[in-house]
């Protein structure tokens, strides 16, 4: 994904965007130095928050957020669609037959339903749905066997789902349109169910303890940083009756901010 080209194209459409948002130099500062770490899922939501600042809750701003959410769902839908196509009924040995291929097929269908819903919502709002990008699920070769090795596939799936859950949560307080917020929350909860199921398929706990993703590649650590927070609403929840350090982190999931998401996302979008 060429972030500079995206900003340049927006500038051509709206020359005043940097007066509404920030100077071009300051915007680029936000992107400087982001590493090529494991990524996905939330660049749509992250950009949504940035342009919310520029355009507020105008129809164009809302359509922009929905289109970026659509891009996120395109990515997940394409990931699972490709995987199921390579393992029809588990016959290839890539995804085992029975419950495993059944679960992945169901998640595929959920993600495609999200895509179709968002496209319909955007059209109904007078907008044009974004075109599906080209994806590289190997992240430039970092996960070269993602579509042939079942364990690699599941690890990347968990990374996608866990990132998406935190990214949706990270933008919830920035959406002031109740209808959009409700739709985002409805999708967010299903993504959380996906994340828990994928974690179980990897023989991991369905929840996150501290900032341990659960036997994940080292490059995915940014997805889990901050999950060890034990202060909620000014209260140290680990000190409450019946609680502990681990329970305090497991009982509350944390949002993921824009800069963290952008550092995670880039390698999977061409």
Which percent band covers the strand fraction? Answer: under 5%
CATH class of the largest domain: Mainly Alpha
Output the structural class. Answer: mainly alpha
From the spread of the alpha carbons, the general shape counts as: globular
Q: Report how far the terminal alpha carbons are from each other.
A: 5 Å
- How many structural domains in the coordinates? 2
CATH topology of the largest domain: Ferritin
- The spatial strand order of the largest sheet comes to 1-2
Low-pLDDT segments: 27-60
Main sheet specs: 2 strands, antiparallel
Rg over alpha carbons = 19 Å
InterPro entries: Ferritin-like, Ferritin-like_SF
Organism: Adhaeribacter terreus
Protein name: Ferritin-like domain-containing protein
Layout of strands and helices, then pairs:
Layout: H1 3-13, H2 17-20, H3 24-31, H4 43-55, H5 59-85, H6 99-124, H7 150-171, H8 178-201, H9 221-224, E1 231-232, E2 235-236, H10 245-250, H11 258-265
Describe this structure in words.
Strand 1 (231-232) and strand 2 (235-236) form a beta hairpin. It contains 11 helices and 2 strands; from the N terminus they run αααααααααββαα. Helices cover 57% and strands 1% of the residues. The chain has a two-stranded antiparallel ribbon. It has helices spanning 3-13, 17-20, 24-31, 43-55, 59-85, 99-124, 150-171, 178-201, 221-224, 245-250, 258-265, and strands at residues 231-232, 235-236. Helix 5 (59-85) packs antiparallel against helix 6, helix 6 packs antiparallel against helix 8 (178-201) and helix 7 runs antiparallel to helix 8 (178-201). The chain has 2 domains: 1-28, no CATH class; 33-268, Ferritin, core subunit, four-helix bundle (Ferritin, Up-down Bundle), CATH 1.20.1260.10. With 270 residues, it is mainly alpha-helical. The relative contact order is 0.16. The longest helix has 27 residues, at 59-85. Mean pLDDT is 79; it is low at 27-60. This is Ferritin-like domain-containing protein. InterPro entries: Ferritin-like, Ferritin-like_SF. It comes from Adhaeribacter terreus.
